[in-house]
Automatic annotation (TrEMBL), chain B:
Record protein name field: Uncharacterized protein
Keywords (A to Z) from UniProt: Membrane, Transmembrane, Transmembrane helix
Ranges that cross the membrane: 12-35, 47-69, 102-122
Organism: Fulvimarina endophytica
TrEMBL record, chain C:
BP GO terms, sorted: ATP synthesis coupled electron transport
Keywords: Copper, Electron transport, Heme, Iron, Membrane, Metal-binding, Transmembrane, Transmembrane helix, Transport
Family of the protein in this entry: Belongs to the cytochrome c oxidase subunit 2 family.
Cytochrome c domain span: 263-355
Keyword hit for Isomerase: no
Protein name: Cytochrome B
Ranges where the Cytochrome oxidase subunit II copper A binding domain occurs: 132-256
PANTHER family: CYTOCHROME C OXIDASE SUBUNIT 2, CYTOCHROME C OXIDASE, SUBUNIT II
Length: 874, 126, 355
């Protein structure tokens, strides 16, 4: 059937088994004349182009629909899944409120209450607040950039499946009454020692979330490259939609915030599974290290949640103020400034841990300072509203509600940033109130505003104004009635995370009021859900650009075409639809770039960072199930490890690696049938780029920055132990010696040299020498990995006895695992070369692997310096 | 007005230079104080040397930020001092980056001062 | 646009800004005011931070009210402005006005306020942690109760545990009024946190670390203390009482607590030993020397049992011993429901005699 037809469509050099060509039946005829040489004003030409574009960008049909990878499909799955998790966590939140409605209640048992509140927080933070940013960005970013897709669609799909599997695993646990039950920040030693937390709860939390962190980092890579390299031609940095600035900042923050948590997770799980004493003070560990690592992640995370939601406001406000934003640079200041400062706040979650006042002072200072860019942000919106001619609407209603609520959260935030006040408010309902004001005002209300605003481009029809207003007032009043009294409960001495409280402390009334408010709030949100789910097939389609906005996502037509944009426009304004004459018509008639998919391949344009000069036509891969398999096997690794089924874990690990390799082998660095392609308007762009210009190289670079951050977090752990111990290594324990670590470093340097040589030799055309270098480099890498492990092994360091050997081992294992991955990459390049997928001209694979090896060498150097030389210094 | 040849080209790295200096300053202050106070004994011993170091380092960082600020202001003026910068040409992009750098330098300057304040008011490890 | 510009007239300017709809404002305003007053009138209590029973709590209370008033003003201004810009006067203003607003409202004003607050906070911090001039008391947070030892000697530090010795008690801390007492905080199991809201802020009790909290009660009375770091199932019912008395009474109390038990024989004591209670509990002056659970030498003198959750009466004691898990879910002490009622009653009667 379809295969035969596709076979029949093979013409000359056009290869339809390319991953960029979807495996669909009935391909339209290909076009051999370049886009610059056809008569674009001829309707027949345009019709043929449109037919090809639709065929190429269409989502798969039937059960194969789930193999889709295009940003529209994946984004919609992602968003709806995040909302479903949110509704689930909302029900958990209501259970908490029922339990606390009256004193001495017995609606839930203490243990089940603890599961419920832990899962409420965990799901809201990890399965809703962060993923919803990624989800909405996957939908909106390419639309706002007039791109046909993000640069790595299969990575997005992989991220989604990871998210889904991890989320279902974590949420499902409560139905077996084995959910985590120690709060969403899981402080050890309560959580790391079986005697305090028997069962699988803590493991499920940890492994489930590690898996979701993978998804977040995947999204960060995708979004950074997307916003820097996939902008439409002409969209210079000063033209980027503000949303893109926020996405860039937030994705960058993810890259530095999540890895410390990954490092923390590794230490945590090693203690829980293998009794390595990272957080056990009896054996030199310190529970405070987890708190540091968790909050180095945890505080930026608040802004990772908040900034993208504010970004939605930055798009909505100008539309309804009928003018460009006032203070574009101020918003950039606010986004970048907040992004940085948010990394200097983490200890304000630890004000009560007894750290020296001077240390607390630094964090108190930064916590106050971060209010400045946040204030600027709010005042930019106010200024825009003031300067513009405001039109009110349901999205604006939610925007106003968001401001009213968020400002309260911000003001209480300034209060708790003062350590002396925080010593009273910390871990009480005051903080519970504060954080809900920040998150609901700073995240949920903007997202609902965004739903009402962008729904026309998502579904072609509008949501109901009447229901929107009802929902808003129920949510707004319900929220304030529900959460405002919590500040008072807190000031009256109600700690958070208590499953019950006694009567007579003045807590009865505020708690009852909170519960009533929470239910009104939830009912309001259900109105939104009902509005979304209500069938509206009989309603007329919304008109295009429903709100008369000025940015590119509004090019989208009410009846979805799948192609994103008919042609990729040239941008000369921040609000092209408002400012560029005849803009929509030119786009629709294909007068800009890439008006066609001549060879039936999914293509988009890559541009330069500063001025968005067109650089390349990027062919992006189409539907595949391989990403689902990869995510499934990787999920199996985490799930099997949770239950300590080690053989199955290893089997799943092998399968996951196989699936990822297959995906990468088939889907990346495909050699095109010609070097350049005519994209229209007389412009020809290369189809294959490697090295620092290529998006794949950027992805590797960004991933390795995240990886390096995780590694440095582990090193931070090592030096943290150095500072708290008078002697480290402790008396009586030998370090890993000098010989093996230095030998390892030498061999690492050799492997790095070989990887580097392989790249240069290949480029110079010495393919055979390059292959030899790859093979030798791979072997050297394996050897280096073995050597680095031999150090602690030969000196008999036992990681169970004390935290010192445990940290040495963890660093050595980290380096060894990276060596193994480096070896695998070199062997992969060797195979690519042997099979003709890697040539002197088309050398993206070895370019990226050489980049990996630069980071690898750095890792090896720091590891060896730390484990071999610090014992000498002490 | 400067000719464009006398201008340095801004990019995303120059944009984030001031807050990066803040981050660096913050980490160093935190680490120095943390290491000095880590044993958590003798909470009432004065930590004069640590505080002097923080003061000196703060001045260095403020100076660096001030230089970035000055450079950006000079070049931004050279490009016509625009604050909106939404025109479609490389100069507007350059001016936008310069103006944004000015703002970020201002914020970073304040943030560095804020970060140094604890060392002015807290004299020991208590 | 589906709605066009909305109501430019109407009472928007005078409405309370938290609620946008002008029509609803009077009702809501009345409701919020009534609610606020009701809440404020109930602000003081044995567990409230607004009781002012300690010098720190009193200073933080002042800080709180000042910040609250400031916050309300800022909020009213901000939201008032947004209502003005969207509803009252949605027409255009000049761009210059906008930029000025950002500069003054978004930058200048916050910088001034935040600097003032920060400096004030930084000055307060070392003050709160000034040296003690009263007794040093060790308090250990244990799942799910507080071990107390009067008159210990020790310093804060890392990789160490609380100093041993002192006069041991549990779940009740007596403090001399008007004196700065040093509380050394630690834990043998998981992270807990020590908080007496009416007297001072909280500080964590972290395994492997000894923290030092200095507090100065200024009003005699009995106050509630609670654990504020989640520590397991019974976290919500892990509390204690703080009894603030004159320095003389404090000395007398500690002297009395240092005495051995008042009654060291009888059926209650025998039942206590026969049922193995001494494996966990110590009663000084007898051979009962368990150290897992609270020291019971002077249980009869305490105000509460089961870590601050029940009044100390013989009935409650019987109820707790026979059904610990029912009274306090997650508690570590097993229930002794299988022990004959009369034996439990005898044990309770004996313990109540230990004044």
């Amino acid at each position: 059937m379809s295969n035969a037809q596709i076979e029949a469509a093979r013409v000359g050099t056009f290869d339809l088994s390319d991953p960029a060509t979807p495996n669909y039946p009935d391909p339209p005829p290909i076009q051999t004349i370049g886009a610059s040489h056809v008569d674009q004003e001829d309707p027949a030409v345009r019709e043929a182009q449109a037919k090809r574009l639709i065929w190429v960008w269409e989502a798969p049909k039937g059960w194969k629909y789930w193999s889709a990878v295009n940003n529209t499909e994946v984004g919609v799955w992602y968003t709806s899944t995040a909302f479903i998790f949110m509704l689930f966590a909302g029900v958990l939140g209501l259970m908490v409120r029922v339990q606390l409605a009256v004193p001495d209640n017995d609606f839930l048992t203490a243990n089940f209450y603890n599961q419920v509140y832990t899962l409420h927080g965990t799901v809201m933070m990890f399965l809703f607040a962060v993923p919803i940013f990624e989800a909405m960005a996957i939908i909106l970013l390419p639309e706002m950039l007039g791109a046909r897709d993000l640069p790595f669609p299969r990575l997005s799909a992989f991220g989604y499946w990871c998210f889904l599997i991890g989320g279902v695993f974590v949420c499902g646990s409560i139905f077996f009454s084995s959910a985590p039950a120690s709060g969403w920040f899981m402080y050890p030693p309560l959580t790391t020692q079986e005697r305090f937390t028997p069962g699988y709860g803590a493991d499920i939390w940890l492994l489930g979330l590690s898996f979701i962190e993978v998804a977040s980092i995947a999204a960060a890579v995708e979004l950074i490259v997307g916003s820097l390299k996939c902008r439409p031609p002409g969209m210079r940095l000063n033209m980027m939609p503000l949303y893109t600035w926020y996405v860039l900042v937030v994705a960058g923050m993810i890259l530095f915030a999540f890895p410390p948590l990954i490092a923390g997770d590794i230490l945590f799980e090693m203690e829980r599974l293998f009794n390595w004493p990272f957080f056990d003070p009896e054996r030199g560990g310190d529970p405070m290290l987890w708190q540091h690592l968790f909050w180095i992640f945890g505080h930026p995370e608040v802004y990772i949640v908040f900034l993208p939601a504010i970004a939605l406001l930055a798009m909505i406000v100008p539309t309804f103020a009928r003018r460009p934003i006032v203070g574009y640079s101020w918003i950039v200041l606010a986004a970048v400034g907040t992004g940085f400062l948010s990394f200097g706040l983490w200890v304000h979650h630890m004000f009560a841990t007894g750290l020296p006042a001077i240390s607390l002072g630094f964090f108190s200072a930064a916590s106050e300072a971060v209010a400045i860019p946040t204030g600027v942000q709010i005042f930019v919106f106010l200024a825009t509203l003031l300067v513009g001619r405001v039109i009110f609407s349901v999205p604006m209603l939610f925007v106003s509600g968001a401001l009213a609520i968020f400002v309260i959260g911000g003001l209480t935030g300034v209060m708790v940033a003062l350590a002396p006040f925080d010593w009273q408010a910390h871990d009480t309902y005051f903080v519970v109130g504060h954080l809900h004001y920040v998150l609901i005002g700073g995240m949920l209300f903007p997202i609902v505003a965004g739903l009402y605003y962008w729904w026309p481009i998502l579904a072609g029809r509008t949501l109901s104004d009447r229901l929107g207003k009802i929902a808003f007032w129920m949510m707004f009043v319900g929220f304030n009635v529900g959460f405002f009294p919590m500040h008072f409960s807190g000031m009256m001495g109600m700690p958070r995370r208590v499953w019950t409280y006694p009567a007579g402390l003045g807590l009865d009334l505020p708690n009852l009021v909170s519960t009533i408010g929470a239910f009104v709030f939830a009912a309001g949100f259900l109105v939104v859900v009902a509005d979304i789910l209500r069938p509206r097939g009989h309603l007329p389609l919304a008109k295009r650009n429903h709100w008369n906005a000025g940015t590119l996502e509004w090019l989208s037509e009410p009846e979805d075409k799948g192609w994103g944009v008919r042609s990729i426009p040239i941008i000369t304004s921040r609000y092209p639809i408002w400012d560029q004459p005849n803009f929509i018509d030119d786009v629709d008639n294909g007068r800009f770039y890439l008006p066609d998919a001549e060879e039936l391949k999914r293509e988009t344009i890559v541009t330069s960072v500063l001025d968005a000069k067109p650089l390349q036509v990027l062919r992006v891969p189409g539907p595949t199930f391989m990403t689902m398999w990869a995510a499934g096997f990787l999920g199996a690794v985490f799930i099997f490890a949770t239950f300590h089924w080690w053989y199955l874990t290893i089997a799943a690990m092998v399968l996951a690696t196989g699936a990822i390799l297959t995906w990468v082998w088939r889907g990346t660095a495909v050699i095109p049938e010609k070097h350049e392609k005519d994209v229209g308007r007389g412009l020809s762009l290369p189809l294959y780029v490697s090295g620092p210009q290529a998006v794949g190289w950027w992805a590797m670079f960004i991933t390795m920055v995240g990886d390096g951050t995780a590694f440095l977090s582990l090193v931070f752990g090592y030096f943290f132990y150095v500072t708290i111990h008078a002697e480290f290594p402790p008396p009586g324990i030998e370090g890993p010696g000098l010989f093996w670590p230095l030998a390892a470093l030498a061999v690492f340097a050799l492997a790095w040299g070989l990887a580097f040589a392989a790249r240069s030799l290949n480029k110079a055309g010495s393919v055979t020498s390059a292959r030899l270098a790859m093979a030798a480099g791979g072997l050297a890498a394996l050897l280096a990995g073995a050597f680095v492990l031999l150090g602690p092994h030969t000196t008999g360091l036992d990681p169970v006895t004390h935290v010192y050997p445990a940290t040495v081992w963890i660093l050595a294992i980290w380096a060894a695992v990276h060596a193994a991955v480096g070896a695998l990459m070199l062997f992969y390049c060797l195979a690519r070369s042997l099979f003709g997928h890697l040539t002197p001209l088309y050398d993206a694979d070895i370019q990226n692997v050489a980049l990996y090896w630069h980071f690898m060498l750095g890792t090896a150097f720091v590891t060896v310096a730390t484990i071999a030389f610090t014992p000498l210094a002490t | 007005m400067f000719g464009s040849s006398r201008q340095t080209a801004d990019n995303l790295w120059t944009l984030i230079a001031p807050p990066t200096i803040w981050a660096f300053h913050f980490v160093i202050c935190y680490v120095v104080a943390a290491v000095r106070c880590a044993p958590n004994t003798g909470p009432f011993e004065a930590i004069l040397a640590t505080r002097w170091f923080i003061l000196a380092f703060t001045l260095v960082c403020l100076l660096a930020i001030a230089l970035i600020f000055r450079r950006s202001v000079v070049e931004w003026r050279g490009h016509g001092s625009g604050t909106v910068n939404d025109e479609d040409n490389p100069t507007a992009r350059e001016r936008f980056l310069e103006f944004s750098t000015i703002l970020l330098a201002g914020l970073s300057f304040l943030a560095v001062v804020f970060t140094a304040l604890p060392a002015a008011f807290i004299t020991d490890c208590r | 646009m589906p709605q066009g510009r909305l109501r430019r007239n109407g009472p928007a300017a005078g409405s309370p800004p938290r609620h946008h709809a002008p029509r609803r404002s009077p009702v809501l305003r009345a409701f919020s005011l009534a609610g606020l007053l009701a809440l404020l009138s109930a602000c003081t209590g044995p567990q409230s931070t607004l009781t002012g029973a300690g010098s720190e709590a009193a200073q933080v209370e002042t800080l709180f009210w000042v910040m609250l008033v400031g916050a309300v003003l800022i909020w009213v201004f901000t939201i008032g402005l947004s209502i003005y810009a969207t509803r009252v006067h949605p027409e255009r203003h000049s761009e210059k006005t906008g930029t000025r607003l950002i500069l003054w409202g978004g930058v200048a004003f916050p910088v001034v306020v935040l600097t003032a607050l920060l400096v004030y906070g930084l000055k307060l911090m070392p003050e709160f942690r000034a040296e003690a001039n009263g007794p040093t008391i060790a308090v250990s947070g244990e799942r799910f109760w507080f071990r107390v030892a009067y008159g210990v000697e020790g310093e804060p530090g890392v990789v160490k545990s609380l100093p041993p010795g002192g006069v041991e008690s549990a779940n009740e801390i007596w403090l001399p009024v008007g004196v700065r007492s040093a509380i050394l905080l630690g834990s043998p199991d998981v992270v807990h946190s020590f908080w007496v809201p009416s007297i001072a802020g909280k500080m964590d009790m972290i395994p492997g670390r000894v923290n030092r909290l200095v507090i100065e009660p200024v009003k005699e009375g009995v106050y509630n203390g609670v654990c504020t770091e989640f520590c397991g199932d019974a976290h919500g019912q892990m509390g204690f009482r703080v009894v603030v008395v004159s320095p003389g009474d404090y000395e007398a109390y500690v002297a009395a607590q240092s005495q051995p038990a008042a009654v060291t024989s009888g059926p209650g004591f025998e039942a206590f030993m026969e049922n193995g209670c001494d494996a966990c509990h110590a009663v000084r002056g007898t051979e009962a020397d368990g150290s897992v659970g609270p020291d019971l030498t002077h249980l009869g003198s305490r105000l509460t049992i089961a870590a601050g959750i029940l009044d100390n009466t013989p009935e409650n004691l019987v109820r707790f011993i026979s059904a610990t898990e029912h009274v306090k879910q997650g508690v570590e002490m097993p229930a002794y429901g299988m022990v004959p009622n009369e034996e439990i009653a005898a044990i309770a009667a004996w313990l109540e005699q230990l004044k």
